[in-house]
Amino acid sequence: MLTRQYKTNSKRKRAPEEILVSRNVKHSTTGNASTSERNLSKNVTTKKVLTKASIPRRPLYSNKVVTINNSTVKTLPISSKPVLRSNKSIVSHKNATTSYPGTRPVPYELGGNFTGKVSSANLNKAELARFRSEIAQHKKQLAEIQREAAESEEYNKAIEAEFPGLHDELTKVKLDCDIMLADIEQSKVLDKQLNVMNEENNRLHENVQKLNQDLRYKNEKIAEQKSLQESRLRQIQESYNGLNSEENTRKELHNQLLDLKGNIRVMCRVRPCTDGENDVVLAKLKCSDDKRSIEISTERMSLWRTKVDTSTFKFDCVFDQKADQDQVFSEISPLVQSAIDGYNVCIFAYGQTGSGKTYTMEGDVNNPEKKGMIPRAIDVIFDKIKELEKLGWKFEAYVQYVEIYNETIQDLLGDENKTNNERKKLHKKTYKESKDLYKIMYNESTRMTIVENAERRKVSRKEDMESLLRKASNRRSKASTNSNLVSSRSHGVFIFHLEGEYPIGNASSRGSLSLIDLAGSENIDKSGSTGNQLKETQNINKSLSDLKTVIQQIKDKASYVNYRDSMLTNLLKYSLGGTAKVCMLVNVSPFADSVNETKNSLTFGQTARKTHVGTASRSGRF
Fold it and tell me: Which secondary-structure segment (H or E) carries 32?
């Protein structure tokens, strides 16, 4: 506490102790004095009397915690309050002599106070220097700690940044570890299975070795048997070749014999059953093994028992129900070759209605396996023509296709734009003039039959010929009867004229092939024909009857043969008159209800086979 000062004269002289204190303070303060020292100097110069209470207090340090970058740092103890140090030389205010206004302090008292203050200042200065040094060190430590804290912070951030990736990698490693563990378990299972399979493989290997031994043994046996079979096959082939050669020789001799005899070749074919005819009762027909005869059995009632009559008919060849179109054509193909060689050839199908005549002659043009005799003959003729043309021959082929309907001739290749009904109306109007409209002409030099005014079309390819066959077949007169759903009501006559020239050898050839699909004979009561169909049936039966009569007259060597009784026999005059090779295909039904018609057809065929028509002659230069 400062003593109270009373105002005096402002120009009074300072006391000696004030001057001394001020001077000592000035000489003792060097460098940068602290705030406490400056305050002390100020107090001295302001003429204040220092007491114990007015001595500057040095700050003491207390423990202080500082947080830097989330790091806790403990600093040195620093006190914000100044501490009063005691000085025995300084007399307390209470013991000091009281000074009154207008009096001076005692001199010894001033010297003691000054000395104490100087010591205290020196101590404070040393303490201050030490504290400054410590503060500098602590600042360095603090800077180092802060730097390390910053580095630690950056390191922590780097670690924290890497932590998600490390976590994912750890998850992946765990997943891979689980997969590897599962693979290990699976490998164990597979090892067990492999061991089992190895054992099975060893067992199978042993079995294979045994089988190989058996196989080698059997192969040796097979080789022996194969060698033996090859030897036998060679013997069989040699025998077959000899038999085939003998058969060919027999056929040639047979053909020569027939040519010498002049007989008509007659073949018989039994129609096969269709899919819807399996439940129909069949006739008792039996073909011989040599395919030369057919046997038919019929039953008749006597007085007390049923008697069975068996009849056998012999032909040049018999085809049973299993025979196909190719087998039939193989027997008549030599006759087709004869037409190319310059002979007149006539092949006609005969039989009751529904016996398969149209199928045999025409078949199905679109199906190679079911082609009839006409399209097959066309194929063979054009193939042979190509072979002969390579040798220098030149051939021209002409065709005519007509039908004999109700004793009138109708052209199946002409009037293509007219329907069947229109053509029928035309022929009804010109029935009396039909003989003048389509005349049957005979070429005496070539011994050929030509239908005058009927279209004679030139063909150069078999594809064109097949197209004509389809059109002509669709234009034929057909109707449905009780005996046949699709019954031909006319005789179809297909005539193929072949003219060949061989300039190198100055040779020529003129031949013809007539393929005739006769209408079927019908039982009027059985067919149920009435009206126009009745007239058609009567004309068909009459023309077939006239054909039988002509053949019988030729067989009996009658002095006069009446060919002019019908259009059919008139057209077949040169064929049956001894200048052509003739083949008759007798078609019969396999059903029991047609056994009488079958027997009549077989009888007529056998009669025709015994008929001598003369030796065929070739036409042309040879």
Answer: none
Secondary-structure percent of the chain, ordered helix, strand, coil, rounded to 5: 50, 20, 30
The residue behind tokens 């005899």 is 261
In this prediction, residue 349 carries a pLDDT of: 92
pLDDT, residue 429, reads 46
* CATH numeric code, 262-609: 3.40.850.10
Q: Which residues pair with 66 in a beta bridge?
A: 73
Domain with CATH 3.40.850.10 in the chain: 262-609
Residue 145 backbone dihedrals phi, psi, to 5 degrees: -65, -40
Adjacent-strand bridge partners of 442: 449
pLDDT number for residue 112: 60
Q: Is the pTM of this model over 0.70?
A: no
Residue 498 tokens read as 């072949």
On whether the CB atoms of residues 454 and 398 are closer than 8 A, the answer is no
Model confidence pLDDT, tens digit, residues 344-395: 889 999 998 888 888 999 888 888 888 999 999 999 999 999 988 888 889 9
Backbone phi, psi, residue 585, to 5°: -105, 110
Q: Within 13 Å of residue 594, how many CA atoms lie on the same side as its CB? A: 26
Q: Which residues contact 375 (CB under 8 A, 6 or more apart)?
A: 362, 363, 365, 465, 466, 469
116 marked ligand binding residue: no
Q: Shortest CA distance to 314 belongs to which of 370, 265, 255?
A: 265
Q: Taking a C-beta distance cutoff of 8 angstroms, is the pair 459, 398 a contact?
A: yes
At position 250, the amino acid (one-letter code) is: R
Q: Any known ligand binding at 414? A: no
Q: Are 585 and 576 in contact (CB under 8 A)?
A: no
251 is in an annotated binding site: no
Q: For residues 354 and 593, give the distance between their C-alpha atoms in angstroms, rounded to a whole number.
A: 12
CA–chain centroid gap for 480, Å, is 46
Residue 413's alpha-carbon distances to 254, 456, 467, in angstroms, are 38, 8, 11
- According to the annotation, is 363 in a ligand binding site? no
25's tokens:
């303070």
Alpha carbons within 13 A on the beta-carbon side of 1: 6
Please give the Cα distance from 219 to 221 (Å, whole number).
5
Say if residue 352 carries a ligand binding annotation. yes
Mean predicted lDDT score pLDDT of the chain = 76
pLDDT along the chain (622 residues), means of 10: 42 46 42 44 41 44 44 44 42 44 54 74 86 90 91 87 84 91 91 91 91 91 91 85 72 64 82 76 85 86 75 92 92 87 88 88 86 92 90 89 86 69 55 66 76 87 84 75 66 90 81 88 69 82 89 86 87 79 91 87 90 71 53
Cβ count near 371 (within 10 Å): 22
Residue type, 292: R
pLDDT of residue 42: 43
Helices and strands counted in the chain (H then E): 14, 20
Q: What is the SS3 assignment for 322-378?
A: CCCHHHHHHHHHHHHHHHHCCCEEEEEEEEECCCCHHHHHCECCCCHHHECHHHHHH
235 is in an annotated binding site: no
Which pLDDT value is given to residue 328? 93
